[in-house]
């Protein structure tokens, strides 16, 4: 049996019937007009009674789930999404820069031929650790070049250099996920140069970058952060072992990869503290995995 269409008022009544406490039904209707019912239901899912459809808030003595609490959680998610996106963008830019530099660096820097050919290493399938990955990557690269053909620098390299972009140009049109494919196919020696630059092992970096990409996608696609379950916990450095299977695990990775300490400690940590005080009725431990001594783990 298919789901049937419901008016905003019917949607509101359905939530009320499921024991969501609403002081003013019109407020809920107005909220539903701005936020998709299914999107809101994602936040309500964790409050559902086991094997039932009604809601309860076990953190409250009366067990009543207040609409204003759900609204506050969603507002908090929106604010956290903004402050987490900024460092992710900086980490992505930093990683692309390192990959472009080390992957194109010739073994013999005095060899002028290598200085010209090594920046095009990614165009030759024989340079890929996994040759099967090359055809998939090449198809993506061609698609990106086509979709961005109106960009001045793309047109420039097509007209003047027969579409042969050095790697430091190509990274500008590739997604973070595709950059990861390139990273996995670089020689181990070059990959280790990048991990050494970050002060971590290659084993750790190969776990961190996919985690950062997962986090980036979570933020970019407006998915729920509150009680989001991190399935694959990224590896941690010795002395900093903490797995919550929630958003906090991603923040630990950001803390290791971020290069701008002032930005991280000031902007990110500062705003987290501010929001903890403003939304003090929402448990950051339950919702995002923050332990009581979270600053000991996150401050750079």
Q: How many individual helices? A: 15
* Oligomeric state: single chain
Give me the Rg, rounded.
24 Å
Arithmetic mean pLDDT: 93
Distance between the termini: 54 Å
Helix content: 55-70%
Describe the structure.
The chain is mainly α and 300 residues long. The protein is 60% helix and 1% strand. The protein has 15 helices and two strands. The mean pLDDT is 93.
Give keywords:
300 residues; mainly alpha; two-stranded parallel ribbon; 2 strands; 60% helix; 1% strand; elongated
Structure, briefly:
By secondary structure, the chain is an all-alpha fold.
Blueprint (SSEs and pairs):
Blueprint: H1 8-17, E1 20-21, H2 25-34, H3 37-44, E2 65-66, H4 67-104, H5 112-117, H6 131-147, H7 152-160, H8 167-170, H9 176-184, H10 188-198, H11 202-220, H12 247-257, H13 261-278, H14 284-288, H15 294-298
Parallel strand pairs: 1-2
Helix pairs in contact: 1-2, 4-10, 4-11, 4-13, 9-11, 11-12
């Amino acid at each position: 049996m298919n789901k049937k269409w419901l008016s905003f008022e019917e949607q509101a009544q359905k939530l009320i019937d499921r024991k969501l406490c609403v002081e003013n039904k019109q407020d809920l209707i107005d909220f539903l007009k701005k936020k998709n019912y299914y999107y809101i239901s994602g936040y309500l899912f964790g409050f559902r009674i086991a094997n039932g459809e009604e809601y309860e808030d076990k953190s409250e003595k009366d067990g009543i789930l207040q609409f204003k609490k759900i609204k506050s959680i969603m507002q908090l998610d929106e604010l956290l999404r903004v402050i987490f996106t900024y460092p992710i963008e900086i980490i992505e830019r930093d990683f692309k820069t390192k990959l472009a530099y080390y992957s194109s660096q010739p073994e013999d820097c005095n060899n002028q031929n290598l200085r010209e050919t090594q920046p095009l290493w990614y165009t030759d399938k024989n340079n890929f650790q996994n040759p099967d990955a090359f055809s998939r990557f090449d198809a993506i690269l061609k698609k990106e070049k086509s979709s961005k053909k109106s960009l001045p620098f793309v047109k420039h390299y097509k007209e003047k250099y027969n579409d042969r972009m050095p790697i430091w140009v190509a990274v500008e049109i590739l997604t973070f996920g595709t950059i990861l494919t390139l990273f996995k196919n670089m020689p181990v020696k070059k990959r280790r140069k990048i991990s050494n630059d970050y002060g971590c092992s290659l084993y750790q970096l190969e776990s961190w970058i996919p985690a950062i990409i997962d986090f980036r996608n979570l933020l970019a696609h407006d998915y729920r952060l509150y009680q989001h379950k991190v399935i694959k916990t990224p590896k941690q450095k010795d002395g900093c072992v903490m797995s919550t299977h929630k958003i906090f695990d991603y923040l630990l990775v950001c803390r290791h990869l971020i290069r701008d300490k002032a930005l991280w400690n000031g902007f990110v940590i500062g705003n987290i503290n501010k929001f903890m005080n403003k939304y003090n009725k929402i448990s950051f431990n339950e919702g995002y995995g923050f332990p009581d001594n979270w600053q000991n783990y996150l401050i750079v």
